[in-house]
Amino acid sequence: MFNKMKFFLLVLVLSLQLAACGGQPAREQSKPNSNALEVAEAKGVVNIYTSVPEDLINELVSRFQQKYPQLTLKIYRAGTPEVIAKIETEARAGAVHADVAWIAETTAAEDLKEKGLLRTYNSPEASNIPANLKDPSGYYYGSRLINMVLAYNTKLVSPPPTSWKDLLSQAHKGKIGIPTPASSGSALYAVGSLVNHSDFGWKFFEDMRSNGGVQLKNNSEAVQKVATGELHLAVALDYQVKNLRDKGSPIDYVVPAEGLVMVASPVTLLKDSPNPRGGEVFLNYVISRECQQFMAENQSVVPVRTDVKPPAGIPSLSELKAMKSDPVFIKKNKTQLVEQFTRIFTN
Amino acid sequence: MLRGQPLKGLILILILGLMAGYPLLRLLGESFIYDAHLSLENYRQIATQPANYIALGNTLSVGIVVTVLATAVGTILAWLVARTDLPGKEWFKPWLLLPYLIPPFIGAFAWTQLLGPVGYLNKLYQAFSGSEEPIVNIYGWGGIILVLVMHSYPLVYLTSIGAFGRIDTTLEEAARVAGATHWRVQRDVTLPLMTPAILNGAILVFSYTISNFGVPATLGFSEGCYVLTTWIYDLIKNASLSNHLALAAALSVILGLLAGASLLGANLVMRGKNYAVIIGKGGGASTIPLRCWRRPLALAVALFVLCFSLAPVLAILLTSFIRAYGLEPVPDNLTLEHYRYVLCGMPVAQRALFNSAILALAGATLAMILGGITAYVSLKSGWRQRSFLEFLSSLPNNVPGTVVALAMIITYSQPLPLTGWRLYNTLWIILLAYIIRYLIFPVRSTAATLSQVAGSLEEAARLSGARWWQAMRDIIVPLAWPGLMAGWFLVLIPAMHELTVSVLLWSVGNETLGVAVFNLQEAGSVPATAALAVVTIVLVLTVYFLFRRMAKVDTGF
Fold first, then answer.
1. Most confident of A31-35, B57-61, B204-208
2. Residues facing B267 on adjacent strands
3. pLDDT tens digits for range B1-32
4. Pick from A89, A148, A182, B199: most CB atoms within 10 A?
5. Cβ neighbours, 10 Å, residue A249
């Protein structure tokens, strides 16, 4: 009876998957890959710890797997602070499982570097990345530029907002949101930049809270809530807004008059990781022309490579009006920024 | 003959102590360590942070309000079903237990589809009234309470319905003969008799509520409504403070004490009560005629089932078919694509299904074996050993899952001594956590079966020359089998959809079903989350009903 039951349950679970997956088309034949030496010897499982949103990372994983069938990517996806906490806990345990950390902003990479958890790597793909977007000693490479902008619901908000201060407008009371820096690296950058700006400071966030502003777990939640009309306005990532807009959702964004907050998302390799060669192959793939082009064309992500054109409809880097962000200030005050924000938005 | 028993008991105490007691001791120790020194600094930091008081206050207020409401709902429903001539009550029974079988965090997610600012009810209201404002908002304190009440009232319902059936009818009859009306008898005789059972259920609800993580995590965040479990979770997941684990440990100690205090309080309250009036087998209790209230009450119960048990499930079912979140639920917008995606296009979900199946089967089997042995040994032991065994096997269940998970992280993030094995970041750590957390279920169910079995059968076998293992195989195990099976099942079901512990212990490749749903909901598409949630519910319900049919054992509900 007992064994029958166990057997039965296993069959149930497996048949559930089989039943639903039966009609899947056969995998595309993998193309022969570039024959760099390390690619040849890289195989096995590569653990990627990343804050890149679910849909984008899944898309990249399946493209990567087609190109490198000898490697299997496993993804730990969470907000940047959580990814860092996970890696630090692993490091304390004496065994870092992550081969690659691909996170939202550079101060988190600097933290890992300072704690001696990263290793340097001289990527053959790096020559087309401007010097200000990579670490001089090769600890991390910028992989994409993500911009924090003001997203709005096109059905409910007219005319479109123009300034970050629209978040304080009575017309949107109780319908505004911002991702929390406690779980989002790009939000940390946005909050840090606004706090450090003479026109905003903490007063701005206190007023936003009084205007019914709510904290959101991450950027994906921000765009979903604006798209469904649950919120009128939210601080959000430009490319996520653009993706939803292109799918027909009533959402768009503006670059506020004071400027957007530009965040360079770094990709790094962990020291003493289980699959160093595999990690290198993935890092090179992320900053390769192919991947950057794909992210720009299909996901509207601003590329870091000078030889890849930015996505259509997004002004070039020189034309973008960006607010001044001070990584030194953000890194130094990280704990205080998170605590103060949480204090304001949880009362 | 029994000379070997104390030794067996000691060995078992050692094993359980290592598995269950030691990690919690490590957690306690960690909370007193600051900067590698013994210190009260962590507690001082906690005491000076206003946010901690808010989280504690929310935990208490949610706990108390949910307990009061769920106890009222559970008792009234149990009374209607057990004691009155409510029409269709046999039909109501399974539906009243439905929320019990649905994981609460999935319940919370389901309620957002119904009562969220863009949920179906608000959409409907806005369409009819022309208003742009939603009429209800499930997020925040009120929503957490609503969902927790719905998922916890069955605890009171189950304990009360059993007691209603076992009540000593002679007292009621005496009151009737003395001329009291039905209502007076229920109020003055039955209710006082029922108080211990109801209180028992209420305590279960309280500790269930303050331990719950999934519901406040889903509904409390955007409104800034934290409770201790979610607050501890955030602390563990945030490395910006160097002593974040120690702070989380200190808060866990407070949460654990709160849960312990409620159990202790229950014991104190129960001590004064006289159980004797609830006899083993009652039966034949009179059925109270509802008279003109029959139909209205039946309608009310039906509406309750429809609105509170079924509607949220139907809401996620609908959402799981919608092409893109936010579109109107009209035929053109419906698709099966999300099911294909979660079952085939999402490696995490496939791994999670497989992992959870393995964890549930292995966890249930191992907990059953260990729990069976514990029950057997403690039955043969003196009271001192027995209470030790009872304490150790119930401890990890009595403290909230968040606390157990943190204890596991603290204990097993270092390689094990001698062997050098690392449990952290493997499936083993989750399996171990499940075993200690659910160990008490098979211990109780096996002890209940074994205590009804005369020890003389075993002795007879041994006297006739059977070896101990022969006696075990031929006498004890077959006799204990129903209890073992019930224990196995009582572990299997919660282990299939566990979230609170695994959300803190999962790692790449070692995701559980609960974690997959939770993560997808946090950062993925809503319809895909709904699809995976529906898959989870279907799986749990199928296993539940199949097991009931195949095993025909009384599982207690």
1. B57-61
2. none
3. 445 567 888 999 999 999 999 999 999 999 99
4. A148
5. 23
User: What residue type is A55 in one-letter code?
Assistant: D
Q: Which of A17, A45, A82 sits opposite B237 (nearest CB)?
A: A82
For residue B222, give how far its alpha carbon lies from the nearest alpha carbon of chain A (Å). 5
Distance of CA A65 to the CA centre of its chain: 20
Chain B interface includes A31 (CB < 8 A) = no
Determine phi and psi for A149, rounding to 5 degrees.
Answer: -130, -175
Gap from A117 CA to chain B (nearest CA, Å): 14
For B44, the token pair is: 């001082």
Subunit contact B224:A215, Cβ cutoff 8 A: yes
Hey, is A100 helix, strand or coil? strand
For chain A, which domains are there? 39-145+264-299 (3.40.190.10), 147-262+323-346 (3.40.190.10)
Picking from A1, A8, A13, A208 by the largest number of B CB atoms within 10 A of its own CB, the best residue to mutate is: A13
Instruction: Tell the residue number behind the tokens 């020559």, with chain if given.
Output: A127
Q: Measured between alpha carbons, how far apart are the two ends of chain A, in Å?
A: 55
Chain A: residue nearest B368 by CA? Answer: A2
Query: How far is B340 from B324, CA to CA, in rounded Å?
Result: 15
The token pair at A222 is 């921000």
Q: Would you kindly state where each structural domain of chain B is located, as residue ranges?
A: 1-34+349-528, 50-313
Q: What is the pLDDT of residue A36?
A: 55
Whether residues B224 and A82 touch (CB distance < 8 A) is answered with: no
When pLDDT is cut at 50, 70 and 90, the band that residue A141 belongs to is very high
Residue A313 vs residues A56, A292, A301, A319: alpha-carbon distances, Å: 20, 17, 11, 12
User: Cα angle vertex B542, ends B537, B545, to 5°?
Assistant: 120
- Determine contact, residues B21/B395, Cβ cutoff 8 Å: yes
Distance CA A133, CA B291 (A): 80
Q: Which residues of B touch A177 (CB under 8 A)?
A: 222
Annotated binding site of A for Fe cation: 239
Amino acid at A31: K
Separation CA B527–CA A228 (nearest Å): 13
Percent of chain A with pLDDT over 90: 64
Inter-chain contact B550–A346, Cβ cutoff 8 Å? no
Amino acid code (one letter) for A250: P
Rounded CA-CA distance A347/B140 in Å is 12
Q: Stretch B269-286: mean pLDDT, rounded?
A: 57
Q: Which two tokens stand for residue A92?
A: 């304390």
Chain B within 8 Å of A238 (Cβ-Cβ)? no
User: CB distance from A26 to chain B under 8 Å?
Assistant: no
pLDDT-derived band at B182, boundaries 50, 70, 90: confident
Q: Which of A9, A158, A334 to mutate to test the interface with B (most CBs of B within 10 A)?
A: A9
Q: Is the ipTM of this complex over 0.85?
A: no
- Per-residue pLDDT of A225-273, as tens digits, reads 999 889 999 999 999 999 888 888 899 999 999 999 999 999 999 999 9
Strand partners, A151: A234, A253
Instruction: Name the residue among B532, B525, B107, B543 with its Cα closest to residue B350.
Output: B532
In CATH terms, the fold of domain B1-34+349-528 is MetI-like fold (1.10.3720)
Contact between A334 and B546 using a beta-carbon 8 Å cutoff: no
> B509: distance to nearest CA of chain A, Å?
7
What is the per-residue pLDDT across B258-269, written as a single tens digit (0 to 9) for each?
999 988 887 777
Question: What is the second-level CATH architecture of the domain B50-313?
Answer: Orthogonal Bundle (1.10)
Minimum CA–CA partner of A250 in chain B: B326
